[in-house]
Amino acid sequence: MWTLDRLFPRASQAARFPVVDALDTWTRSEHTADVNGEPTTHPVWRKGTGPGVIVIHEIPGLTTGVIGFGQELVDAGYTVLLPHLFGPAGRPFNNLDVMRTMPKVCVSREFTKLATGVTTPVAGWLRSLARDLHAELGGPGVGALGMCFTGGFALAMMVDESTVAPVVCQPSAPFVPFPGRGADLNLSPADAEVVRRRAGEGCPVLGIRYASDPLPGTRFDTLTTLIGDAFIRVDLEGKGHSTVTEHRSQRAVDAVLEFFGERLTS
Hints:
- One of its GO terms (molecular function) is hydrolase activity.
- By secondary structure, the protein is α/β, with parallel strands linked by helices.
- Helices cover 34% and strands 20% of the residues.
- The protein has a single domain, classed as Rossmann fold, CATH 3.40.50.1820.
């Protein structure tokens, strides 16, 4: 049976270390855009110079692991935005925060959890953030990376022309193991068609997962069927879940940096 302790073997250990303010060197702002017909505001942390990249955190929140990955992108020459959509910020991953955050995420109208063939409502907010960043920085567009619960959000952002480098890390929503949900991309049919069209026009998608991880289900197979060779698939060896954070793989990070370099700096 897959448990949090098995998926995140270092999580409980990390929680025992003193918490430092990992966002001290980042600049906080806010972004407001429509979600489900209502103006919605979320904090956004920013750092760096160069082409823009939006990193969407996983459950339980904006952890030190996510912030550390964001710093890697800053060091590589990117302007990085870390939107804070739910949960705590600046703390190491720990299972207690997961248990506290999950009920709030599950009742929030900003996110889809179980429904298939539906785009997450917060996608409109993320697309707005990407448009603003692209308008400010110029260039070919911005990169977007989602992970786990937010893995499919980067695909939803691709519906807007401002996102030209979508990265899908271990996408895990809608939640499995319910039949059919493990293949769903968290997109409406109309948005899936836009993803298919844009991929055919030259906008590839990078996907990264651990091959033994059950949480992404068969979504990578669905993406291959949808966009064919435009889907760049990376299946990592070994056991793990969070490909660029808690179970960070250098191969995964290198693939992201190469993808952003090709798409955002040419």
